[in-house]
Amino acid sequence: MLSVENLSVSFVTRMGTNQAVDDISFTVQSGKITAIIGESGSGKSVACYSLLGLIPQPPGRIDGGRALFNGQDLLQLDTDELRKIRGRDIAMVFQDPMTCLNPYMTIGDQLMEPLRYHKKVSRAEARARALELLDEVGIRDPASTIDNYPHQFSGGMRQRVMIAMALINEPQLLIADEPTTALDVTIQAQILALLAALQKKRDIGVLLISHDLAVVADIADQIVVMQQGRIVETGDRDAIFRNAQHPYTQKLLQAIPRGGKPVALPVSEPLVTVRNLCTWFQSDKAPVKAVDDVSFDILRGEVLGLVGESGSGKSTIGRSLLRLVPVTSGTVHFDGIDVTALQARELKRLRRRMQFIFQDPFASLNPRMTVYDTLAEPLLLHDIETRSTVGAHVLRLMDDVGLARAAVRKYPHEFSGGQRQRIAIGRALATRPDFVVADEPVSALDVTIQAQILELMRELGREYGLTMLFISHDLAVVRQLADRIVVLHRGKVVEQANTEDLFARPQQAYTQQLLQSIPGRAVRTL
Amino acid sequence: MWRFIGFRVLQSIPVILVVITVTFFLVRLAPGGPFSAEKAVIPEVKAALEAQYGLNLPMFQQYLAYLGDLAHGDLGPSFKYPGRSVNELIAAGFPVTAELGLYALLVAIGIGGIAGVVASLRPNTAQDYIPMSVAMIGICVPSLLMGPILILVFGIYLEWLPVSGWGDIPGDKILPAITLGSTYAAYIARLSRAGMLEVMSQDYIRTARAKGLPEWQVVVRHALRGGMIPVVAFLGPAFAGLLSGSFVVETIFQIPGLGRFYVQAAFNRDYTMILGATVFLAVLIVVFNLLSDILAAWMNPRLRSQYGGGA
């Protein structure tokens, strides 16, 4: 149905020409799901957007190729002809449902818009159709929610609305760009299942773009692997998973988290003891009980995984332990000291021993400080080194986190996401802390980079003798690093167990549901 | 929503009190008094006058008396226009100033808004640079200069429009409105350009394009509302600024508005008139800021439901 031949797209900027998509060819068949896999910057999104004229030109430029859709070359159409196809014959679902819906319009108006524009139907008719579709994508009680604004919906619900919006004109081809990347794991499983079901029912073609091989493993028929603007491998799903030819595909397959960390730790005494911790946030109505009566221990030298979906309070716990947010009640003992009772001055001294690694290496590093300054700051602040001796220490840290010493005078924007997270880890380890809270340290990273950073954390943890609280929404990631796991749901502890026990014999229904939602079950069973 | 408004009104009371207090003591610190200007007055007459207006009392007592009157909405008698109260003078001048301010605001929104949106659609091209350069000139040229230039061009060389007056000859309101509005048009142009650029880079604009909507519908239906919120939030301060800043234009074009009374009062040490006009304008500034904040919040559905106004 869609056949792309020798497509090349480049971006022309003052810095020179950047070949984003280099001579790629693939097809999407009616009634099949084709997945394009690649890491960020591999050109997968650019390729699909350029088919519909959705990349800004300039700087974008289509250098050549054909894209035959029902015999018509999309690349040769003028804007008006292309616009008639967009939203009618080919529809799109984007990555982040939080930002892809217009916050100033009701979802009903947004849903009806493509139908009203392309098919010129009456408002009443469009509304009836919108209600049907909302019902079909699983929005409860559409009649009363259709006039709500996007902020009144959760992320998963918004993505359902996006899907309904894409399907409202009954397109022949649906392009879904990372449709589940921004969602929690259980929601992700639901959305993927929904997409697959709708595709089957309508027998349409789907082009699914993803960075995560595990995600597409369960639903894709065909897989196209892209790296640096080129297609390195194409094949049907089973062939790719059983018998990947290209080393890059093999690397992607290996990066799918499976199995765990086998080493059992000798039993030791707790370093951190959390008892009846409550952290509530004031709001207009009832207080929001972000953390509600939580108790657990973190043993010396272990990695404790803290797992939960967004809103489960896992980040708030991490922050509460370091007193980055005020604690409502309960106690946190660190090495015998009650952290919740400390004065500011004592807290500062203790913070040398307790460090934090944040999720987003783009936001947590000061863009106006060089790596040198970033790494030297904690050393000087805590009087570990003087101005004259700090240099050597900074360089040692660079070695430890696997960054070239020559890069020490660069600014954060000159580094990739993975490198930035290495800097953030270096900063956290600079003071040789006993305890580190790592809040989703790899969730903003590509999968192969994710694997590297996890490996680095594992190594450094051993080398520095660290005790770690590893917070993540991703059970598969936690499994690779954690000795024990605490599962959180709505501010309360649902279950805690050794990692292997938890995976082998989950006791609680919620844990079982989480485990079942881990994408890539098809891979594991192959 | 009512809580939000109530809170903001309470917040503004101390602001206005400070304005009153500072103005009250500042004008009295200035050398001279309402009866010490121009021709010399016999000391006995001056003392009698001062006694009549309570100026012989201790300063603090005068202050309390003024606050007491103010609480009843009485701004006191004018020292320079015997027999007329400040309330009457403001009531006479304000409608003219308000009308001028309103027209100027319409000019500012019309010209500025369109220029800003047009510029934002093709950033960093001639379509952007030309209106934005004109806007920059608009900000840099004070109305003191803009007024005479417009008078020269449209009034004297082209003889299209009358050059002074207010409501006497048809068209005599056009030049003052443009003069007063031009600076604000420039600000609004810059604000709306920035607002639109921000919104046009949002993901939901890409969604709208992916639906196949023509570009003008993308702009009008999807971008304009979000892009104009900063402009709406600026309208309150802008209108207040137009009212209080209109005296230059009123002087140039011989318009009998509040601004001219205000400036004359300052020269004449007409204490009650200065105070009255200041308090009046302070209240207006607070009210218009509040109004534009409410409007901007109402335009954002998320804030609207947060303040309990219903969705």
Protein described:
The complex is a heterodimer of chains A (526) and B (311). Chain A is an alpha/beta fold. Chain A has three domains: 1-89 and 170-180 and 199-256, Rossmann fold; 97-168, no CATH class; 270-525, P-loop containing nucleotide triphosphate hydrolases (Rossmann fold, 3-Layer(aba) Sandwich), CATH 3.40.50. Helices cover 37% and strands 26% of the residues of chain A. Chain A is built from 21 helices and 20 strands. In chain A, helix 4 packs parallel to helix 7 (155-167), helix 8 packs across helix 20 and helix 14 (371-381) runs parallel beside helix 16. The mean pLDDT of chain A is 85. Chain B has a domain at 92-268: MetI-like (MetI-like fold, Orthogonal Bundle), CATH 1.10.3720. In chain B, helix 4 (86-121) runs antiparallel to helix 5, helix 6 packs across helix 7 (174-200) and helix 7 (174-200) crosses helix 9 (215-244). At the A-B interface, helix 2 and helix 4 of A face helix 8, helix 9 and helix 13 of B.
List keywords for this structure.
heterodimer; A: 526 residues; alpha/beta; Rossmann fold; 3 domains; six-stranded mixed sheet; 37% helix; B: 311 residues; mainly alpha; MetI-like fold; 75% helix
The end-to-end distance of chain B, rounded to whole angstroms, is 12 Å
> Which regions of chain B contain 5 or more consecutive residues with pLDDT less than 50?
none
Low-confidence stretches of chain A: none
Integer average pLDDT of chain B = 84
Name given to the CATH homologous superfamily of the domain at 92-268 in chain B: MetI-like
Strand order of the largest sheet of chain A: 6-7-8-3-9-10
State which percent range the strand residues of chain B make up: under 5%
CATH class of the domain at 92-268 in chain B: Mainly Alpha
The CATH class of the largest domain in chain A is identified as Alpha Beta
Shape call of chain A: globular
Biggest sheet of chain B, open or closed, and with what strands and sense?
A: none
Number of domains of chain A: 3
Total count of helical runs of at least 4 residues of chain A: 21
What share of the residues of chain A does DSSP label as strand, in percent? 25-35%
- Number of strand segments of chain B: 0
Distance between the ends of chain A: 29 Å
How confident is the prediction overall: mean pLDDT of chain A?
A: 85
Evaluate the radius of gyration of chain A.
25 Å
Number of strands of chain A: 20
Order of helices and strands of chain B: HHHHHHHHHHHHH
